[in-house]
Design a protein that fits this description.
2 domains; alpha/beta
Amino acid sequence: MSFLDARLWPLILKEIRQILKNKQIIFLLLFPPTVQLLVFGLALNPDVNNLSLGVVDYSNSASSRDFVATLVANDAFNLATYQSREADLAQQVRQGKISTGLVIPADFDRQIAAGKAVDVQVLIDGVDANTAGIASGYIKQIINRYSQSLQAPQLTLPVQTAVSFLYNPGLLSSWFFVPGVIGVVITLTGSLVSSSTVIREKDVGTLEQLLMTPAAGWEILMAKIAPLFVLLMGDVLLASAIGRLVFNLPFRGSYWLFLALSGIYVFVCIGIGILLATVSKNQQQVILTSFFFNVPLIQLSGAIAPIESMPAFFRALSFFDPLRHYVTIARALILKGVGIGPLLPEIAALLIFAILLLAISIHQFRAQLH
C-alpha cells in the first residue's frame, strides 16, 4: 500500500483543510508572531536616555559650565532646570520632576585650575533601581572622560583599561532580546495553535467521528502533528527573517543547524499544546491554562531577564525550562556562530523534553480516544 493510499494521508489532508478554513488559527500563525517580535524587539531596551538633569552651580564659572555641557553633550542627560539652592534641587528630585541632580561646589574652577581633585555631589532618584544604577554609571563615565580631557593626573585613574566587546560590538540591545523573543514567539504560537486544533475536535464533536474510522490512535495524532510542525516551522522562518531584515541579526552560525534545532523545539511546543488540550474541556479553558503554563516558562528562560540575576532557587529551576535551552542555542548560533559541540547539553535537554512531552501528550490523547 503506497503512502497516498494509506489511512494517514487522508487524515493529514483533512487536518490541512481544517486549518486553512480556520481563520483564527491562520491569524494566530501570522499576526501575533510578527507583532510580538517587532514590539518586543523594539520596546525591550535596557538603555536609558534623556534622563532629566537639574543643576545647582555655586561656581558659576566657565569651567563649571563646560562641565555641565559635557554631561548633556549626548543623549544620556537632558538639562531640565537650574536651581539656586541645593534644597530646591532635592525637592525637584523628591517630586519626580527630575531624575538626577548635580551640585557643583563654589571652588570648582579654582580646584580645576590647580589640578586638584574636586568633589561634586550627585543626587539620583533611586525609586527605579535599574535607571538609578545606569544613571550613576553614566555620570561616572562622563566625569572620568572629562577628567582625562583636562590632562590632570590627579583626576585620572592610575590603571587604564582597553575593553573589546565581542559578538555584539555595537552593544545593540535588540541583538540580545530578539533571539530570546523568537523562542517566546514559537512557544506561545506553538502551544496555542496545537492546543486549539485538538480542542476544536472536542468542541465540534468530530473527535467522536474519528473514533468510528478505521484509523489507529497514533495515525489520528500523527495527522495532527505533521501539519502543525510544517506550519510552525514556517513561523520559525518568518521570525528569523524579521530578525535578519528588521534587526540585522548577524546569524553567524549554521542557519540549517538553527532550523534543525528549532524543529526539535517545535516538537516540544506541540507536545505542550496537545497536553494542555487533553487536560482542558473547551477552548476558553485551554487558552487560560496555556497562559498559566507559558508565563513561568518565559520568566525563567532568560529570554527577557538574565538568568544570572535570578535567586539561586530559580536559577536551578530554570534548568527544567525547555525555553531556556532553546534561547541559549539561538543566541549561541545567531550571535557567536558556535558549532554543534558546545551546544550538546542544550540539544540533549531539548530532545529529552520533546520525547517526554510528546509521550505524555500522546498517552493522554489516546486515553481520550478510548
